[in-house]
Amino acid sequence: MDSLNDFFKTSFKTNILDWEKSLLSELKISEVGNKGKKLTLNGLTLPTLSLERDEEVQLSSNEDWKKASTTYASVPEENIEALLLDDLKNGVRNFFFFDGALSDKKWGLIEKTLKTHPTPSEIEVFLLGMKNYKSNSFKVVKNLISGKEFHDLGGSSIHELALISKKIIETDEDEVFVGVYVDSLFFHNIAKLRACRLMLLKILEDSGRKSKLKIVALTSFENWTLYDRYTNILRNETAVASAYMGGADHVQSCGHNILLELESGEDLFDEHFERSQRMGRNTTHILALESLLGVVQDPSYGSYHLENLTQTLCEKSWALMQRLLLNEDISQEISEVREKKLLMMKTRKLIVSGVNDFPDPKETLNISLKSSPFFRYPRIFEELRLRMEKVRKPKVFIAVFGDYGALNLRLSFVKNYFELLGLEVQDTNRSEKDQDSFRKNLSERMEEVTVLCALDEDYLKIMPHSLTVNSPHKFIAGKFEVSGYKNLYAGQNVYEVLSELVEALERGRV
Fold this sequence. Notes:
alpha/beta
């Protein structure tokens, strides 16, 4: 053992620089950063990457372990006490409440229940909304400093971090709770949280303040879904894991059913509610305590990619913060970011499972949505599908001509296209290769929506001849243009095509 210790103190330390140079040469990384030096940009000192531990920036934690959390969006008064007692019994100490779960009477029940814990001082309650309550028994955080205003409009992480930094400059509280939104972009979340802490510590240092800083990772619902809601479990898991690794002091965890509670206005206290609460709670238990992400001080320590991404976010956010301090209006920039996200969603360059790709056509919600309190780009497709649920759903028939095996991908594309509206899509599970037989069978079909599906070169064989298609809504798979038919192809604005179909069906127009 002594010889091993001697090795690390002498030979290992002596040769480490040579080993690093050799490694970087093999990886073809031309520049990693100046060791032991700092880059200054507009007054902000930023860390550069170093492979030596002594010079690496390492986040610190003020707690030895992170507390498990749960989130309430709505809950009947008669169930509050039992649910909270169950959470306390299962180790929850951070509670997040949206306004829908609060009222004067409910708050009285919440306070009464949480006070029954032997050490209520361990409990922290975060109020996410306009409600303003307090307690003498446990900590209530109601004034989170966050970039909510920009985030809820669809802005980027840079917009959000810049607004947070501006607010920190303008506040002089002794204890500051900062809310940072995290989504399903794992590495981006880690870098975003690290960038936030570095920027805020720099601001506090330069202003000579000794404010106690706590980072709270909040759930971003930007890409959460109403349909195929169980995929939200994965989104929440990714957000929570990245929040722990990014050094957040408190981490919000949400159940997969929470959007229905926030946006539907329906009484949804059923088995889904209970399951959703339990899954949200257990996510923080497993990741924070069983996987030890809430115990390890800085799990992302030493990553070149994360250090580089952190530095980029710092630079851009710091520059934008200075513009905000001059009261510059950036609403147009935020609007452009929002519209870009929506366009990517509509053209399926941005895929959200269960909404604009890979849907479950048998799933129905039959609900009415309230106006959303935040920007969520899957909602445009969800609203379209909910409108379709309120009209008589047409059947879709795919008329296949040519080699069935060669058309498999195109056929799957067409099925997926109309299943986005929850429509039943039919095909004969075989293709016609005889033109006369194809035309005869097609003329006997009575579905409201018909799609011709063939290879582009085969359309030339069937289209010169008159086709009798009884459907009022006719489509053709591919870019082969035929009068009276709408084309379906990859990369087009899927939302626009489906919107026109839904509008026509709502009006009963042929």
